[in-house]
Amino acid sequence: MNVVLRVVRYMKPFWKLETIAYLCMLAINGARLISPRLIQRIIDVGIGQNQVDVLATSVLLLLGLTVLQGIFGFGQTYLTENVSQGVAFNMRNELYRKLQSLSFSYHDHAEGGQLLARATSDVERLQRITGRGVLGLIDGVILLIGTTIMLFRMNPLLASLSLLVMPIIILIMRFYLVKVHPIWRLRQDQTAQMTSRVEQNLRGVTVVRGFAQEHAEIARFDEVNNSIYATSMRAARASAFTMPFIVFLAMISTVVILWLGGNLVVSHTLTIGALIAFNSYVLQLVNPVRRIGMLLTVLGESRASAERVFEILDAKSEVENMPNAMPLGDIQGEVTFDKVSFSYLGGKKVLDEISFTANPGQVVALLGPTGSGKSTIINLIPRFYDVSSGSIRIDGQDIRDVTIDSLRNQIGIVLQETRLFGSTIGENISFGRPEATQEEIEAAARAAAAHEFIEAMPDGYKTGVGERGETLSGGQRQRIAIARALLMDPRILLLDDATSSVDTDTEQQIQAALQRLMVGRTSFVIAQRVSTVRQADLILVIDSGRIVASGKHAELIQQSGVYADIYYRQLQPDRAAVPSEVTP
Amino acid sequence: MTFNISTSSFRGPVGRMGGYRDVTGKVFDWEIMHLLMRYLKPHRLAMAEALFWMLAGAGLALVAPYLTKQAIDVYIANHDLAGLAQTAGLVLLCYALAFAAEWRRRIVMNKIGNRVLNTMRGELFRHYQELSMSFLDQHGVGTLISRMLGDVGVINELLSQGIISMLSDVVVLVSIIVVMLMLNARLALLTFTVLPLMVITTAIFSKYARRAYRETRMRSSILTGRLAEDIDSMRVIQAFAEEGRMSNEFEEVNRANRDANISAIRLAAIFSPTMQALTMLSTAAILWFGGRMVEGNVLTVGMIVAFLNYTSRLFQPIVDLSMVINTWQAAMAGGERVAQILQLEPAIIDASDAMEIEDIEGQVEFDNVSFEYIENTPVLHDVSFKIAPRQTTALVGPTGAGKSTIANLLLRFYEVTKGEIRIDGIPEKRITIESLRKQVGVVPQEPFLFPGTIAYNIRFARPDASDEEVEAAARAANIHEFVTGLPLGYETQVLEGSANFSLGQRQLICLARTILAAPCILVLDEATSNVDLRTEGLIQDAIETMLHGRTSLVIAHRLATVQHADSILVFDHGRITERGTHKELLAKDGLYAHLYKTQFLKPEVEA
Fold it and tell me: Residue A163 belongs to what domain range?
């Protein structure tokens, strides 16, 4: 569908307000067209012919007209903003919901910053254009037409000469913007480049200083910094000329009116009041006309914004509920992979015919190098992606036949990269079950060995988590994530047993919490440590998307060279483990 | 004739809200002003020029309405067409000159502003290169960047625009008032009666508008923050099936943003018409009283026109002046933050008698070194050891034992709290930092690459290295084959965050970088992350090549490294608890033996 029409459709719910706003705009233009004539009357009749009553009534009328204009002006501005803010509001909600419904494969490819920019600045641009933008354009055109008619009726010769500059102003404005927009964009890019230079310089500070490369870095920075200066000056030169020049053009018009109009007054074809009215007409037209030139340019850019926004709204989600999907009832927790293959969008196969069964309550440890497919197996169970072929069954039911919500509600996830929200610690723990009571939250925190440090915080469970959880240490965040999963009381658990740099005590607590978490649940663990694989009921060694070995530790350590290699080289020991316990 | 009756719309405290910032600090501070003026000093001449053009423009703007009055009262009234043409020509000249003055003024002012911006940014960046590591740790990259973008920006706004336009506003205001009083004092005073009303209106609206627009900016940043966070957390939201609740929460945030914007616009929608009505009130006064005076032959029609003309330019400066205070406040706040950084002394600088070192043997000695990042929380206690030239020493111990601190101190990223570090017997403090770091190469644990090409990254430590040298280094680091296999080879771009290379590949590129730097002493923090077995082999191999013939300090995580080391230092809680060779330490059956059994078991070697 046509992009423009589609944007207009967002205004439809507000058509009543919009109509009133446009009526206000028409009324204002009426007043603008009458006012100069009133002044003419004041000067020619009121003052020129010494009629005090005409002077009085006209001045009062002028004041009245201004008051009316003010009221309509308020209505126009306020209502238009109402409509356009409403459009932005609806658009953002729609975008948000859409982004939530899009599967992981969409988010893998989309850049977070891009999505954010579309939901903020692109929507804002559309908000402006649907509101003040289009209104200003129509307003300018109506005033231009109305003024032209009035002026031609007063004096065609003077009218055509004094209006001559208007199309020129439109053209110059357009020409200027077409020229200067790429320069602005260039400056934006260069500023982004500079920001990234500084950022990388600071993040890589050990490398920069370690190799004593500060001078080279300064030279590189200066280069970007100077290019920003050059670009800014290019833009400045263009606008330093254009803006005063447009004013100058308008002034040429007034000089024409003064000279030619003066001649006409002398030859009695024009009154002095009409000359002054002429002048006002032309001057009040300058800004609206300049706006026309501007809006014509902005319109094109809004189109690009609209296309970017609709691109998200039109994206197809890979993972959707089947039309006849049923909620997943209470489950035992048996998980079966049946010849599951998977490849990311257009990519090569990440999983190749994976088959295994995890019985209820079992712990399945996944082992293998980075990129072998371990995480993919974990991602397929809650349907973050759908299998390319084969099937995954829970208690014998294909997971594509049940509703996504009901499936995910039975699965708890603790991954290494712990995402917390900017709300309170308590709210983060109850994220998956907002209705949980304070007692339940505390119980979960206790089980996750988090209760103590939470209580020690100034506001306890009400302590705010800084943006991206920065006020908490890695170990603390991890324990909150464990509590969050515990509170869900899921039948199936997906986790990563890595402990990010924490001290020995904390690590033991986290390990213990993870152990408690796994009891009685079917658990899939991306194993990073010795203790996990040793107690696993089933170890799957994955390499290049295939299971290359599977079984229990005792069997595998004897039979599988690959397993032994990974076991010795890559797994982390438990620091607290007594040396004699460690094999071989 | 420039008056404009019915539609003069005001750029008011509401119309130009972008200029408002959330500051409620001092409007003026001599100390900060002094610092800021330093940046303007080199531009004194340009400032004078801008001021000149500004005054010229303001003057010409006063002349044109007067000439117009003359045209109407004298030449049109007396049917003097030649005089009319001449006056019209003069008016045109006035406008042309005013245009030229304005054009020049804008260019000069922009030049000053952008130059100052450029200088301040350059100075900040240079300063960042010298600030202590602990300062950078504390402040975070985001803050330092926003000093360079936002704070410097508002300062520049004041220096380049604020000061001159404030002067300009005052000059215009005063001169219009004077001219009007001179033309007709009675009518002028009548016109001025609206002035107090305007000032009061503007003041009141400024107050509310500031609050309203602060609210919109707050709401909008909450909205953006929320969106950013939720887009980032989309996986968690989906994993916990909380889409419905999160949508509702977002809708609330979204609604608050919309409502704040609408109520701010409501203020603007009231302000502009009110000011227009007040302007019209003065216009009506001029027409009515002026008209009565014309009838009494005290005044001419041309004079009325001139009055209308001057009046139309009288009010914008008032509105503008009411806004300048915000620019000052913002600039003072920004200036204070920038000054805080610029006034910081770099923690580590060359001593006055510091010497360059070159062609060193590579002997490293720690003599009773103690160190604390935070006062009274020592990380190292009296650490002493000596590494003979071309020997490899492995540092082993649990996380937090102080191994990385040893590396940081050797590179002089931090200053020792007590004791001394010596290179070839020369105390580090007597060596220039640059020459020290040219001799000590580093391979960080997290392989860090800069955005740029692969070649750029390998060449980082030696930008003048030839292509052959880069390639040789890459070969030595076992990465040449991989790089030449890429479509763009060494010219392949490393994306931000190095997302287009695997961890192992990044490690290899970092090794190539260090190999090319050819340092005499090497600090290597071995990576702990899992990479696939083939790459692991390549890395091991490259590290062995690199260590050969160099004095090396390795924070070791791999068995092979430890076994090949000439000596091993075992760290625990900031002290060296054991030292010796692999065999000796195993025999001791202490912490090392324990760590060895639990951490670096590799059966082929062991069995």
Answer: 156-269
